[in-house]
From TrEMBL, chain A:
SMART domains: AAA (SM00382). This is ABC transporter. PANTHER family: AMINO ACID ABC TRANSPORTER ATP-BINDING PROTEIN, CONSERVED COMPONENT OF ABC TRANSPORTER FOR NATURAL AMINO ACIDS-RELATED. GO terms for biological process: D-alanine transmembrane transport; L-alanine transport; L-isoleucine import across plasma membrane; L-valine import across plasma membrane.
Length: 238, 302, 303
């Protein structure tokens, strides 16, 4: 579904992405992990179009999107939820979702969009807060809003950026369940995460990055046992 | 919405009412108020996308000059259209150039643009320069109330577009662009198109208002048409009245222009002080504008 | 000093007069830079330290100019001698403005802050208009037109004095910022502005100081302006814009870069004024054009 080949991004002297290649199969949940500064967020920004790569190629559903602007990627079905949630503060939750539903795909009729919002709002458990101004939500509700908004754009593949950050364990459990529901509804998921229990619970496959490179790939247990991965997280042994 | 309709109705029938010896003055002031309110409505449209322009004086002025120059050759209505189009075209350029500017930088860039435009008009050989440009009255003066009803027309158009946009899908695109441009893009909102479209509509309306204004004052000078005063009026009124609404700029415009006219009679130069003071007081005590007095908290704008 | 003939030899064969004209233009530019640097430094303090986009900054200059004018007309006090008094008065004005108008909106969105100061600017300009009328008031000191001649170039005495004083004042300012504890506190606040809700007493004092200084610097520039140009209600407005252009060019928060940027601007203006036909009218437009191009070009390049 998503094919990344040889992606490179440099910021001055720092190579944030170094020949990154990976594939995402339809219907899977792929986790991207790695120590701080490994280049995970850069990768996500490159994938969602907020950054342009210096080299490399990104293909989505058979089409090249390497240099496409963010709106276009969303229209093609590549959605993204941000780590730091920025709701549209003056609009209600419903209206926030409506923006995604109306514009996520070109020429979506109003009725269709409203139906999408109604479905997503149920799926993500935000119905009781539908009329609340989005600026007044709690952190967990914020995160749900972010997910819901991205879902309203009817993505085939959803990029999630550390959605568990700041959540209490009970809330994280709910979030994990939500992501599973999302996958079950037919959306492929690629997510960045720090919390290993979450990764173990959710991910079908894991990609590990360090210093901008992919250093390991595979199911969680295989990757966790990989010495290179341990080194990356715990530092080089003398 | 009802209020808007009522106000427009009053505007329509005003000349028919028994106004006594004040008639000429009232109609003249009303015409001015309609045009400035239209300008304010136009400014508000652009503000909905988060673009707070200090260039509306320029759009107003460009429309005024273009219409004035085109009128002898094309007649009143086509000339007004030309005025609007010229303003709209210039806004396309400005909009494109400032796409990546926000906040203070955007404001200063639009101000710089406005001043450059003013100098160009001042120096251009065919605009009469600092001496000014005489302008034909609307329809060559054939209809005594021609100018008045043109002003009502422009106001109605501006109010109509403002209302229409609030109820359309575009409303959400504009609000999203304003409240979080990067996020809006990732949600698929065609932000560039939205910003440019808003710019062009806003400038077109401002240019129309400018054209009618030219035909009213019968004489244009760059300091008047392009003056910072116009830009200030364009922004203070919507803020005082209530941003991102139709009632706000309309009501605010009528109130403030009346105040301005009254002050101009009393204290001559320096009447703009009322704008400054109102702006300061509004920000300090009524940041959401007049309309917030009508709506309870939570309802209102998006 | 710079002998026109020497310059002629160095640069090829333009005539001595052209060389002299160029040098004279450059000198005029540099001398004018003093006032720009003062106003811009003041604005840099307001924007960089307090974090307020102060559209009314030029009006502090205007007030300074009028103070000098009124003192001169009323008591015959030479403007350059009234600098200290003007600085104190403007510091007070700045402090009052901060306490009454700025502090309440520090927690409000930036838009509101900009609108507030913009409104203040309009209000002040027009109050001055009401009080003094639109006429420009010139301060004519005895040495108004005096010039100093050195090597074929002339230095106007007022601009020279203004430049010299600017250098001294700015030197004192940077000395204060670099070497005193309070100055360090000011710079620290500029680097690391806390959320307004968390403002401790110390930070509030720093804000007050910075804003007062901001106004004082602008006011001092205004005093000099009254001699070199005139005092009028709208004289400050152009300086607001130029100051913004300068600090934007220098980069926000870069207090040091203000002086070089001011010099560049002043030189550019002088060159345009001399070499563009119809110079005077175009200077403003060229200036704004430069701002426009600089802002937009930089925004696209940053992408």
């Amino acid at each position: 579904m998503l094919s990344v080949q040889g992606l490179c991004k440099r910021f001055g002297g720092v190579t944030a992405a170094n020949e990154v290649s990976l594939q995402v199969a339809p219907g899977e949940i792929l986790a991207v992990i790695g120590p701080n500064g490994a280049g995970k967020s850069t990768l996500l920004n490159l994938l969602s179009g907020l950054l342009r790569p210096d080299e490399g190629r990104i293909e989505f559903l058979g089409q090249e999107i390497t240099h496409a602007p963010p709106e276009v990627r969303t229209w093609k079905g590549l959605g993204r939820a941000f780590q730091i949630v920025q709701p549209f503060p003056e609009m209600s939750v419903w209206e926030n979702l409506l923006v995604g539903a109306l514009y996520g795909k070109p020429s979506t009729p109003r009725k269709v969009a409203e139906r999408v919002v109604a479905e997503v709002i149920e799926l993500t458990g935000l119905a009781p807060k539908a009329q609340t101004p989005a600026g007044e939500l709690t952190l967990l509700e914020d995160k749900r809003l972010e997910l819901a908004r991205a879902l309203c754009t009817q993505p085939r593949l959803l990029l999630l950026d550390e959605v568990m950050a700041g959540l209490r364990p009970s809330e994280a459990l709910e979030a994990v369940a939500l992501v599973r529901r999302i996958r079950d509804s037919g959306v492929t998921v690629l997510f960045i995460e720090h919390l290993m229990p979450v990764v173990r619970a959710l991910a079908d496959r894991v990609v590990v990055m360090d210093y901008g490179r992919v250093i390991a790939e595979g199911p969680y247990d295989a990757v966790a046992a990989n010495p290179k991965v341990r080194e990356a997280y715990l530092g080089r042994a003398q | 919405m009802i209020l808007v309709g009522l106000l427009l109705l009053v505007a329509l029938v005003l000349p028919g009412l028994p106004l006594g010896e004040w008639r000429a003055f009232l109609l003249d002031t009303a015409q001015f108020a309609f045009l400035i309110s239209a300008l304010a409505l136009a400014w508000d449209l652009l503000a909905r996308t988060g673009q707070l322009s200090l260039a509306h004086g320029a759009f107003f002025g460009l429309g005024a000059y273009a219409a004035a120059l085109a009128a002898p050759a094309l007649g009143t209505l086509p000339a007004l259209l030309v005025g609007g189009v010229v303003a709209g075209a210039s806004s396309l350029f400005l909009g494109l150039a400032t796409l990546r500017l926000h906040g203070m930088y955007f404001a200063i860039a639009t101000l710089a643009f406005s001043e450059v435009m003013r100098t160009l008009v001042l120096k251009a050989p065919f605009t009469g320069g600092a001496i000014g440009l005489p302008v034909q009255p609307a329809f060559g003066g054939a209809f005594p109330l021609g100018g008045y009803y043109l002003a009502v027309g422009v106001l109605a158009l501006a109010a109509g577009i403002s209302l229409l946009l609030s109820r359309s899908r575009l409303h959400y695109a504009m609000a999203a662009t304003r409240q979080g441009e990067a996020v809006a893009r990732v949600l698929g909102v065609p932000v560039i198109r939205v910003k440019l479209l808003a710019f062009m509509i806003s400038a077109f309306l401002a240019g129309l208002a400018g054209g009618v204004y030219a035909m009213k004052t019968l004489f244009l000078s760059p300091y008047d048409a392009f003056g910072l005063g116009r830009a200030v009026e364009a922004l203070v009124i919507p803020i005082f009245g209530g941003l991102y609404t139709t009632t706000g700029p309309l009501l605010g415009g009528l109130i403030i222009v009346s105040l301005e006219t009254w002050l101009r009679l009393r204290i001559g130069e320096g009447y703009l002080v009322v704008y400054g003071v109102i702006l300061v007081l509004t920000i300090l005590f009524l940041p959401r504008g007049l309309v917030s007095l009508f709506h309870r908290k939570g309802a209102g704008h998006a | 000093m710079l002998d026109g003939r020497l310059a002629y030899w160095r640069l090829g064969s333009p005539s001595p007069q052209t060389m002299e004209l160029l040098l004279q233009t450059l000198i005029n530019g540099i001398l004018a830079a003093g006032i720009y640097a003062l106003v811009a430094s003041g604005l840099a303090l307001a924007v960089g330290v307090v974090g307020i986009v102060n559209f009314a900054h030029g009006e502090f200059t205007m007030i300074g100019a009028f103070i000098a004018y009124l003192l001169f007309v009323g008591t015959g006090l030479d403007p350059f001698l009234s600098l200290g008094l003007a600085a104190l008065v403007l510091f007070g004005v700045g402090a009052i403005t901060y306490l009454g108008l700025i502090r309440p909106v520090l927690a409000a969105p930036e838009l509101n802050q900009m609108l507030l100061t913009f409104g203040l600017s309009v209000a002040l300009q027009n109050i001055a208009l009401l009080l003094f009328g639109a006429d420009t008031r010139v301060v004519s000191t005895s040495y108004q037109g005096a010039t100093l001649s050195l090597g074929g170039l002339s230095f106007g005495v007022p601009p020279l004095l203004a430049f010299g004083l600017s250098v001294v004042i700015l030197g004192a300012l940077y000395g204060f910022l670099d070497r005193t504890r309070l100055g360090l506190a000011v710079r620290a606040v500029a680097q690391n502005r806390l959320a307004p809700g968390l403002l401790g007493i110390e930070t509030q004092r720093v804000y007050l100081l910075a804003f007062g200084l901001s106004a004082a610097l602008a006011g001092v520039a205004g005093v000099m302006l009254s001699v070199m140009l005139y005092a009028s209600p709208t004289v400050g407005f152009a300086y607001t814009l130029k100051a913004f252009a300068i600090i934007v060019m220098a980069g926000l928060g870069n207090l040091r870069g203000v002086v070089p940027a001011a010099i560049i601007l002043a030189l550019a203006e002088a060159l345009v004024s001399t070499y563009l036909p119809g110079g005077g009218g175009w200077v403003e437009a060229v200036f704004f054009l430069v701002i426009f191009v600089a802002l937009t070009w930089r925004s696209w390049r940053a992408a």
